Amino acid sequence: MTTARDLWLLVARVSVGVMFFISGWGKAANPDKFASDFAGWGIPEPGPASTATAWAELILGALLVLGLLARVAAAGLAVTMLGAIFYSVWPAAMSAATTPTGFLSTFFYSSEWLLLLVLLALAGAGPGRFALDEPLGIEARFQRR
């Protein structure tokens, strides 16, 4: 029997996964621009870091869409969002905001913050029944622990 929870997890997982897959594809296809962005944000070793991030978004996004190792994929993408928040969103919010309310508004309206929340929810809740983890028994292993 299908539940609303499984349908919600499917929609959330596929939506976020496709977004990261497309983003990673674009970054992997134009590595010099992405490395330049990383350098501008002050990220150490911008070349290797941007390459790793691009491929992580591409591969983990695809895994999330498929629901294969979905909790691991969501957690890995959450780490990329933490990096984006630390190096890009937080400094931009700090420099743009003239009041505490302005900072909070800028920060909490960022897509990186919202994606982090969705990814953490997916990592915690799992992929639902409409995922490759289910027939392969991967999700059952997480639930037994």
From TrEMBL:
The protein's matches in InterPro entries, at most eight in alphabetical order, are given as:
DoxX, DoxX-like_oxidoreductase
Q: Where in the cell is it found?
A: Cell membrane
Superkingdom, taxonomy of origin: Bacteria
Q: What is its main location?
A: membrane
The record's keywords, sorted A to Z, are: Cell membrane, Membrane, Transmembrane, Transmembrane helix
Look up and give the membrane topology term. Answer: Multi-pass membrane protein
Q: Does the keyword DNA-binding apply?
A: no
- Protein name stated in the entry: DoxX family protein
Q: Where are the transmembrane segments?
A: 7-26, 46-66, 73-93, 113-132
